[in-house]
Recover the amino acids of this structure.
């Protein structure tokens, strides 16, 4: 088989799940294109990409974390806090805003890594705590309200402008995904991350630097959440301390839809992107249905749907695994 | 001297596992490290390689004082270790497992082609040709062990440590391993070899270090240490002679409890017929790949029987899954005990009685008194070395974990118990205890189907032995015809 096709070779139930998510994505696109007039309009496509790039970024960080067998619940809080930091830094220079937001994310990621590897606290608990801390810090810094960004330094270009006809956030997400793919598939550290997810104790016995690698993964997840926060602030013109609620769920759902096992040890960057796009597409289509006047969905209902979707996927995944492992 | 460990002590939660133990290894020598289950062999190795930190003592490696903080450091210093527990990443491919942490790179990226070639090349020296792109979990215990060995020998280490490397290998594979060890030796590499099979130790080792209760009790060249003396050092007492356990009488024709006829599935099991009578130990012999384990899996419903019939207590049955077989009173202690079956974080008590819990319930609540009674009985009967029944099983030595799993099935009171290599990884003192226990249970009416690669074990304990060759039952020897020569010639039988 050519190396080009290798990612699509079906060797395990994970591959099957990955293939089905790609098919489902195309199915949904086709459905939308046939059913709604403006679905394939450039306006819809571009705003779809612009908005969902943020989610794609945190989904990638989450994918790495989940591959190690962990979880990062702090991404939403981190993004919210980072958006505030970015907004506060944006008057100095657009790059100050960008770096400030990322630095805020790195800080939370570093803290997560420290608590999990050095203090040996379960990732679930550790990141739940830092999620609350991040939200709190964001609200404190923002004085409980959204913080307008500077429009003079060009900071808003990051989230609002296009480059070669595509939104800059989409370019950023694309670049980061290519990087993520390289790391996971081509660099030794990617294989180590997979092996650690396969069994931490074993990986240690095999001579891998487990703690250092885990810390790096949480750091990366934090940085990506920070970057998502920067885009959030830049796109909506304000740091939003109360945004980000439920983002971790969206990210987890994307990762799981992409065929990555919650138990760790397997996963794919490409399929995570497909998972994120699929999930985003579902909401895009629901919006169009809203527009047609058939149904009317509040944000609350969207949450319910997101949760239900995640549940269905996890159940399907468990069933698929059971069938695959049966002799 | 390549390695010198002196005065090593280590306590877990106040209980001493090592007490001023020592170990010295010269370059290019094979050092046997022996001792009963729980003597502290694996702990000593884990202290050397940075898995555990020592409480006291000093370690010098290659002329330098060392104190490795983690296995990665020991590996970097030139020590490759095959730990007793399976130490491979199951979902990663064979090639990746062999190279993990030392991946061949091109321009900073993994060179997958080189990795595949390297893996194939080293496995070829072991006469193993498998698809190295497949996850390790897809292969059987023996292959995984060979992969772990391949991983260790490709590290260009100065010291290779093998903690019970042969426990899932058959004779042919052991021969290949020994050839590898000799090659290592020729290139100046030292090997520490931990094992319970004396013949193997005498065949490959130059010197021996004997441990008992966390202490080093003897060191000597292998040639100067007669077997009896070695065992005496190990146990701290004389070993009662390994006497025949099966009564040397004409076996009365007791009723058949379990019988399979012309059973087959796939290519591994072609045509197997065997019977297990009430109150007897029926042996199942054969070379590796002769289909012994596969036959056991068929009977147990773990694999689907495609041809032939199975009769349990006179009724024809067809088991779709193990639960059906268990409901009929059949138990299986698998050979893969290292991986299958133990729940590492649960206590000995829980691990021993999980299969039993439904029966232990009184008004929906676990009858603690009966549970205690069973657990205490088997801890004593099998000589399980532990601090208390509530200790997590992962804290036991490898051999003692195996005993807990054996006890789990014994405690379910099955009418037919299939044991696949029951004494694997178990020390020589406890080995005859286990055989005696099986014998006693058989005398009380249990039917045992015992798969074993050790002829002396079959000769000592079995009432009859069915011999498999190439997935076909080629002989059924009753007690009176059971001799080593008869077994060997039947095993070597080639099906035309
Ligand atoms: N992590 C741990 N926590 C508590 N006790 C432990 C731990 N590891 C080992 N022990 C105890 O230390 C003692 C020595 O165990 P070790 O594994 O070194 O034995 P061993 O000589 O390798 O035996 P075997 O032949 O069965 O493998 C045992 O009593 C064991 O229960
Ligand atoms: Mg051991």
């Amino acid at each position: 088989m050519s190396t080009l096709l290798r990612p699509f070779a079906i060797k395990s139930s994970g591959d099957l799940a990955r293939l089905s998510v790609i098919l489902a994505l195309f199915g949904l696109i086709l459905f939308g294109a046939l059913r709604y007039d403006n679905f394939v309009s450039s306006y819809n496509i571009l705003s779809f990409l612009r908005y969902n790039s943020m989610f794609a970024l945190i989904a990638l960080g989450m994918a790495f974390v989940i591959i190690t067998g962990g979880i990062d619940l702090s991404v939403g809080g981190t993004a919210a806090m980072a958006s505030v930091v970015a907004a506060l830094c944006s008057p100095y220079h657009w790059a100050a805003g960008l770096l400030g937001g990322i630095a805020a994310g790195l800080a939370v990621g570093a803290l997560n890594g420290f608590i999990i590897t050095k203090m040996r606290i379960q990732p679930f608990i550790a990141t739940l705590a830092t999620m609350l801390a991040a939200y709190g810090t964001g609200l404190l810094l923002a004085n409980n309200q959204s913080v307008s960004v500077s429009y003079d330094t060009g900071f808003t270009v990051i989230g609002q402008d296009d480059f070669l006809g595509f939104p800059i956030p989409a370019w950023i997400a694309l670049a980061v995904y290519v990087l993520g793919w390289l790391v996971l598939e081509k660099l030794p550290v990617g294989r180590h991350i997979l092996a650690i997810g396969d069994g931490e104790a074993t990986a240690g016995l095999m001579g891998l630097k487990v703690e250092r690698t885990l810390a790096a993964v949480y750091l990366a997840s934090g940085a990506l959440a920070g970057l998502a926060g920067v885009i959030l602030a830049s796109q909506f013109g304000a740091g939003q301390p109360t945004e980000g609620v439920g983002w971790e769920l969206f990210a987890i759902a994307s990762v799981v839809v992409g065929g990555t096992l919650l138990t760790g040890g397997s996963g794919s960057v490409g399929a995570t992107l497909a998972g994120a796009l699929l999930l985003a597409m579902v909401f895009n289509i629901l919006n169009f249905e809203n527009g047609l006047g058939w149904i009317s969905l509040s944000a609350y209902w969207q949450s319910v749907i997101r949760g239900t979707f995640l549940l269905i996927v996890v159940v399907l995944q468990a069933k698929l695994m059971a069938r695959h492992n049966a002799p | 001297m390549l390695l010198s460990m002196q005065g090593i002590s280590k306590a877990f939660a106040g209980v001493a596992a090592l007490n001023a133990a020592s170990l010295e290894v010269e370059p290019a020598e094979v050092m046997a490290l022996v001792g009963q289950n729980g003597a502290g062999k694996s702990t000593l190795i884990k202290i050397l390689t940075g898995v555990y930190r020592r409480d006291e003592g000093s370690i010098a490696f290659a002329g330098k004082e060392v104190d490795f903080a983690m296995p990665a450091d020991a590996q970097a210093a030139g020590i490759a270790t095959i730990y007793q527990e399976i130490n491979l990443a199951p979902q990663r491919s064979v090639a990746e497992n062999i190279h993990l942490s030392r991946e061949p790179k091109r321009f900073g990226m993994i060179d997958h082609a080189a990795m595949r070639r390297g893996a194939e090349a080293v496995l070829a020296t072991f006469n193993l040709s498998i698809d190295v792109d497949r996850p390790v979990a897809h292969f059987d215990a023996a292959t995984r062990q060979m992969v772990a060995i391949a991983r260790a020998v490709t590290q260009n280490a100065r010291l290779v440590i093998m903690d019970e490397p042969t426990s899932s290998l058959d004779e042919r594979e052991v021969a290949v391993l020994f050839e590898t060890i000799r090659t290592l030796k020729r290139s100046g590499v030292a090997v520490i070899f931990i094992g319970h099979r004396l013949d193997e130790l005498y065949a490959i080792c130059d010197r021996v270090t004997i441990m008992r209760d966390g202490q080093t009790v003897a060191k000597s060249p292998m040639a100067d240490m007669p077997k009896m003396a070695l065992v005496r050092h190990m146990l701290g007492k004389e070993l009662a002679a390994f006497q025949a356990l099966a009564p040397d009488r004409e076996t009365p024709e007791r009723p058949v409890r379990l019988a399979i006829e012309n059973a087959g599935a796939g290519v591994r099991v072609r045509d197997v017929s065997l019977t297990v009578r009430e109150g007897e130990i029926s042996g199942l012999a054969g070379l590796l790949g002769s289909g012994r384990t596969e036959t056991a899996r068929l009977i147990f419903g773990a694999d689907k029987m495609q041809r032939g019939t199975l009769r349990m207590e006179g009724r024809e049955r067809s088991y779709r899954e193990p639960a059906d077989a268990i409901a009929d009173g059949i138990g299986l202690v698998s050979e893969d005990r290292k991986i299958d079956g133990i729940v590492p974080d649960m206590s000995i008590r829980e691990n021993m009685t999980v299969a039993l819990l439904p029966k232990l319930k009184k008004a929906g609540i676990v009858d603690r008194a009966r549970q205690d009674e069973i657990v205490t009985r088997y801890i004593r009967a099998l000589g399980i070395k532990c601090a208390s029944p509530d200790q997590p099983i992962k804290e036991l030595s490898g051999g003692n974990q195996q005993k807990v799993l054996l006890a789990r099935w014994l405690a379910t009171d099955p009418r037919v118990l299939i044991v696949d290599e029951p004494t694997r990884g178990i020390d020589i003192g406890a080995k005859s205890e286990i055989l005696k226990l099986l014998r006693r249970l058989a005398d009380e009416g249990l039917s045992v189907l015992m798969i074993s690669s050790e002829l002396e074990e079959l000769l000592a304990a079995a009432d009859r032995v069915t011999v498999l060759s190439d997935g076909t039952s080629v002989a059924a020897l009753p007690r009176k015809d059971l001799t080593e020569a008869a077994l060997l010639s039947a095993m070597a039988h080639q099906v035309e």
